[in-house]
Amino acid sequence: MRWKKMGLIFEPKGQYDWVVTHASAPFVMHMRGDIYRIYFHGRNRSNKSQPGYIEIDVKNPTDILYITPEPVLRVGKPGLFDDCGVLGPWIVQHDELLYMYYSGWMRGVTVPYYSAIGLAISEDQGATFRRYSEAPIIDRSSVDPYMVISGCVLKEKDVWRMWYSSAKSFELENGIPMYRYHIKYAESKDGIHWVREGRVCVDFDSEKETRIGRPCVVKEGSTYRMWYCYAIDAYRIGYAESEDGVHWLRKDEEVGIDVSKSGWDSEMICYPFVFEARGQKFMVYNGNSYGKTGLGYAILEK
């Protein structure tokens, strides 16, 4: 692969209170014709993350047609698992509804934060979402004792498949306390109740690697392709392939995209989302400071 960077699509500048800073972990949904909606989470004046969206014409992605003035889902009530942030939306259409899987975040004491995966449902084509439950649908367990985050979900016939990040340990990274997490796999019959066996899909390449997160899985023919971000110091985008969606082979050297020499994505690149439009493959991703500089895109060269 070789990706041609096209630049920024959107830079958060306090356009609305929910997007004072950051435009992180994009998810792209086709609306009609050449119009696409990009969901992401921004941060408000209290530094709490909440998801909203912009709409673009894919022929000219830098021309923002619309930005929602309110988040599509607000943080949870005090004491709930998502009272400090609603992160990383991933949306699946189910009948006439949209299921949004998200990471809920709350502050910790002995560790900086706790995270679990929640579900919200939309009945108005994604303009607003309501919680399926005030509790997470996937939380810490005997197979995921530390933390779960960043679920990517595909529905295949009667099986719902999720690739998510699970923390293996909690360690210091350059003097900063961080979870060390990799990507695991789960299945469901209804998209709500999930079976986890602790199966690791994408594991660490070395002891220096600390985080592997935000998987984006695309099935092409009989091959599953996964883009994700991994970190030794700062995030880079990685790539893996699988024939069954469970056993994966890392091919990071084939990903074809890296940090720029200068500018908004010169320090890190992360949170990739890959989709096809107008006969081309697009990647929407974040750059420096986990999306503080905005979100941009690249096109796969043929």
The CATH class label is: Mainly Beta
Q: Please, how many helices?
A: 1
Under CATH, the homologous superfamily reads Glycosyl hydrolase domain, family 43
- Strand portion: over 45%
Number of DSSP strand runs: 20
**Radius of gyration from CA coordinates:** 18 Å
Oligomeric state of the chains in view:
single chain
Main sheet overview: 4 strands, antiparallel
The total number of structural domains is 1
Strand order across the largest sheet: 1-20-19-18
User: Are there runs of 5+ residues with pLDDT below 50, and where?
Assistant: none
Overall description:
The protein is an all-beta fold. It has one domain: Tachylectin-2, Chain A (5 Propeller). Helix content is 1%, strand content 58%. It is built from one helix and 20 strands. The strands form five sheets. Strands 1-20-19-18 form a four-stranded antiparallel β-sheet.
What is the gist of this entry?
The chain has 302 residues and is mainly β. It has one helix at residues 288-291; strands spanning 3-10, 21-32, 35-43, 49-57, 60-67, 85-94, 97-107, 113-122, 130-131, 148-156, 159-173, 176-188, 194-202, 211-220, 223-231, 235-242, 248-250, 270-277, 280-286, 295-300. The termini are close together.
Please name the defining characteristics of this protein.
302 residues, mainly beta, Tachylectin-2, Chain A, four-stranded antiparallel sheet, 20 strands
Topology:
Elements: E1 3-10, E2 21-32, E3 35-43, E4 49-57, E5 60-67, E6 85-94, E7 97-107, E8 113-122, E9 130-131, E10 148-156, E11 159-173, E12 176-188, E13 194-202, E14 211-220, E15 223-231, E16 235-242, E17 248-250, E18 270-277, E19 280-286, H1 288-291, E20 295-300
Antiparallel strand pairs: 1-20, 2-3, 3-4, 4-5, 6-7, 7-8, 8-9, 10-11, 11-12, 12-13, 14-15, 15-16, 16-17, 18-19, 19-20
